[in-house]
Amino acid sequence: MTPTLVRNQLGADASAPADAGTRARDWAEIQERMLAPLYEAVYDRMEIGAATRMLSLGCGSGLAMLVAAARGAHVTGVDSDRERLALARARLLPDAGWDDAPAHSPHPARRRARLLEEGGPAPVGADGAPYNLITVFEPIGCVAGDSEGLVPALRSAVPLAVRGAAVVLTGWGPPERCATAAVLQVAARLADTARPPRTEPGRWRPTLRDDLEDVAARAGLKPDGSGRVSCPFGYADVGSAVRGLLSTGLFDAAVRATDRSQVEKEVAEALHPYRREDGTVWMPNVFRYLVCVT
After folding, report:
1. pLDDT confidence tier of residue 121, bands split at 50, 70 and 90
2. What is the mean pLDDT of residues 53-76?
3. In terms of C-beta density within 10 A (0-12 exposed, 13-18 middle, 19 or more buried), how is residue 103 classed?
4. Other Cβ atoms within 10 Å of 194 Cβ, number
5. Cis amide prior to 196 (ω within 30 degrees)
6. Which terminus of the chain, N or C, has fewer Cβ atoms within 10 Å?
7. 17: phi then psi, degrees, rounded to nearest 5
8. What does residue 49 show for φ and ψ, rounded to 5 degrees?
9. What does the pLDDT look like over 157-178, one tens digit per residue?
10. What is the torsional sign of CA 247, 251, 252, 256?
11. Residue 167 is inside which H or E element, if any?
């Protein structure tokens, strides 16, 4: 799989204020596609197709769901971010009625997608069938506390799936295999400038070898295989890279400790070693996935 170099189509300056809508668009248009090789590798391994009924926890702006639906899967996505969820609806439900089309609809593909906000009930498929695959494509492992909400979410989702259903968790690979880890260290350093230093959830920390296995154990899941996938982060320029990285939320603690302008400036400086002669930015990374069974 060849990753696509993201071209900057947004036209705004990297230092522009990032309201919730802008941040969600930066994620959807710049950053989310960096994980496309991870989606494809998981779907190949799980043999995603028309028989798949997938629940995507933390579905974001819906790219992973779109890829699964293109393979014929029936997909349901849940997310707490309203802005990202709105973008997912625009992608997956461009005309009203996809998720409630009648069984006799002449367009059966329109009955393959459902989207709902976290906190509400997570329905099964339109025909009442339970899920046979649960995915979590928001990688964990480099932010303090990033798995705390995941464990209860998994415990709530598992009863909606068939016995023995697959659950796929994803996380960052070892720091030495992720060029982006060096840039993320800026977040930790800036967060530490707060007085007193902050220890709140959301602060960057190095990935640990057993992060995914720890989540599986706490959620009562049985590991059943794993894999690693190369997911280079490629950007058209430093401005796009800064906006894409800040859209992940991994720099939020640093922004709270200092200010957004300083974080943008220091992230841009940290990206210098990864800038190529044509101005593009390229950072090799490895991500990991863990396949579990309920």
Report:
1. low
2. 95
3. exposed
4. 16
5. yes
6. N
7. -55, 140
8. -165, -160
9. 999 999 999 999 999 999 999 9
10. negative
11. strand 161-172
